[in-house]
From TrEMBL:
GO terms for molecular function: DNA binding. The lineage of its organism: Bacteria, Pseudomonadati, Bacteroidota, Chitinophagia, Chitinophagales. The keyword Chaperone does not apply. The keyword Transcription regulation applies. CDD domains: HTH_LacI (cd01392), PBP1_LacI_sugar_binding-like (cd06267). InterPro entries: HTH_LacI (IPR000843), LacI/GalR-like_sensor (IPR046335), Lambda_DNA-bd_dom_sf (IPR010982), Peripla_BP_I (IPR028082). Keywords: DNA-binding, Transcription, Transcription regulation. It comes from Parasediminibacterium paludis. PANTHER family: HTH-TYPE TRANSCRIPTIONAL REGULATOR GALS, LACI-RELATED TRANSCRIPTIONAL REPRESSOR. This is LacI family DNA-binding transcriptional regulator.
Length: 340
């Protein structure tokens, strides 16, 4: 027997109501009495009625799907952001389609083309480390397509954004200084990213506030944010070839932090005896390492929630939104044995 989904017509026939009355009751319309709504909703629940998503999308001219582009799902930070996105989206009746740029500009452009072809209602994106040309995003945005940025945001496009402040890098550097480390290296993401500039500012502020002179030779950048191990390896090689070697390292991304640990282990460099390490990371495994790793943790789940609420506001608004918010969230400094 061929499966046939229950329709509004079936509910109307069973309850002796018109299809328009049932439709309005299911949409919680003010035109329908509370008693009638209860009858319809109770019956719909009893027979496990589900709205037809195709019919809804045709009627509302929306697919009830949103796209998400991140650099890598395996990254603990981004996976937690996605959990936050899905928690809001599914509660509001939206599906989520996720794509990975793998820190490639070309891949990001292809991801966006694919998602747009799927008629998504809006996009949440953290741009790739390679992305400098924003034409693929500005073209959509200029046509009124809803876009929200998080983590790696851009100044050129006026929309809602969700970020963390520079205080995380400042707090981590200050902690190292108070532990009497003097030569603190900073290994950061690509130079073109605003998040890199923010974390470098936090690092420099801590040095200045504590009377330490800035040494630019102690700052290294990774064009692919640590996704390519050899970039981190090259950065650390340069740091350890300095006449005055670093006595501590601040890593500003999950992947760079992991690569630093790999580098030190391969060369039998002991933490914190030979060098201290503190890194941005949302991995639960950092406290299980030997020694447990001091970290700066970002509120990833809440950032995903906030970005999705912003996007659905743009999608569902009856009028164009022109006032946008950049939501700045606090990080958490967790001190463990790797900096003691």
């Amino acid at each position: 027997m061929k499966f046939e989904a229950v329709t509004i017509k079936d509910i109307a026939k069973a309850l002796g109501l018109s299809t328009s009355t049932v439709s309005r009751a299911l949409r919680d319309s003010y035109e329908i009495s509370n008693d009638t709504k209860k009858i319809v909703l109770d019956y719909a629940k009893k027979i496990n009625y589900r709205p037809n998503p195709i019919a809804l999308s045709l009627k509302e001219k929306r697919s009830r799907s949103i796209g998400v582009i991140v650099c890598e799902i395996a990254n603990s930070y981004f996976s937690q952001v996605i959990n936050g996105i899905e928690s809001v989206a599914y509660d509001r009746g939206y599906n989520v389609i996720i794509s990975q740029s793998h820190e490639s500009y070309e891949r990001e452009v292809l991801d966006l083309q694919y998602l747009a072809s799927r008629s998504i209602d809006g996009l949440i994106i953290s741009i790739s480390a390679e992305t400098k040309d924003l034409e693929h995003l500005t073209k959509l945005h200029d046509r009124g397509f809803p876009i929200v940025f998080f983590d790696r945001v851009v100044d050129e496009i006026q929309t809602h954004k969700v970020i963390t402040n520079s205080q995380g890098a400042c707090d981590a550097t200050t902690h190292l200084i108070r532990k009497n480390y003097k030569r603190i290296a900073n290994i950061s993401n690509a130079t073109n990213l605003l998040i890199t500039k923010s974390r470098i500012e936090g690092y420099k502020k801590a040095l200045k506030d504590n009377g330490l002179k800035l040494d630019e030779a102690l700052i290294e950048y990774c064009p692919h944010g640590g996704l390519v191990y050899e970039e981190v390896e090259k950065a650390l090689d340069k740091l350890f070839m300095l006449d005055k070697k670093p006595d501590a390292v601040l890593s500003t991304t999950d992947k760079i932090t992991t690569s630093c640990l790999r580098y030190f282990k391969a060369r039998n460099i002991k933490i914190p005896d030979d060098i201290a390490l503190i890194g941005f990371s949302n991995s639960e495994l950092t406290e299980l390492l030997s020694p447990p790793l001091s970290i700066v943790r970002q509120p990833a789940f809440k950032m995903g929630e906030a970005a999705t609420n912003f996007l659905l506001e743009l999608i569902e608004s009856k009028r164009p939104i022109t006032n946008f918010e950049t939501k700045v969230m606090d990080t958490e400094l967790i001190i463990r044995q790797s900096t003691r």
